[in-house]
Write a structure and sequence with these properties.
mainly alpha
């Protein structure tokens, strides 16, 4: 999934994010039905997490490609995601760390974009 989102922009990123939300919802359903948890809560949380992750990772990689990054960045991101997934299967509470980092990364990128546009408005 992450390999498909690398460097996408515009409507392609939106379509890939919708696909990630659907896959996340299915995996959330499967995960909560196996663990006998609240199925609706698992589906909603997994779908939101998948959509946020897809949007943030795609934005980061697209920005790196605009600044001259190579395709090797996608391989590194996929490898890091696999390592994080394996660690989260072994130690489920570790999933809080990458989730918090993704929220921080999204917030920081949004803050930086607002500051950039504020500077452009001054030039008018």
């Amino acid at each position: 999934m992450i390999a498909g989102t690398t460097g996408l922009e515009g409507s392609a990123r939106g379509r890939m994010t919708i696909l990630a939300v659907i896959i996340g919802a299915v995996l959330g359903y499967l995960g909560t039905s196996v663990k006998d948890g609240s199925i609706l809560l698992g589906v909603i949380l997994a779908a939101v997490a998948a959509g946020l992750t897809c949007a943030v990772v795609s934005d980061v990689i697209a920005g790196a490609h605009r600044r001259g990054g190579t395709a090797a960045l996608a391989v590194i991101i996929v490898f890091a995601a696999l390592v994080i997934a394996i660690i989260c299967v072994v130690v489920p509470y570790f999933a809080i760390v990458p989730a918090a980092f993704l929220v921080f990364l999204a917030w920081r990128r949004r803050q930086r974009a607002d500051r950039k546009h504020a500077g452009l408005r001054v030039l008018r």
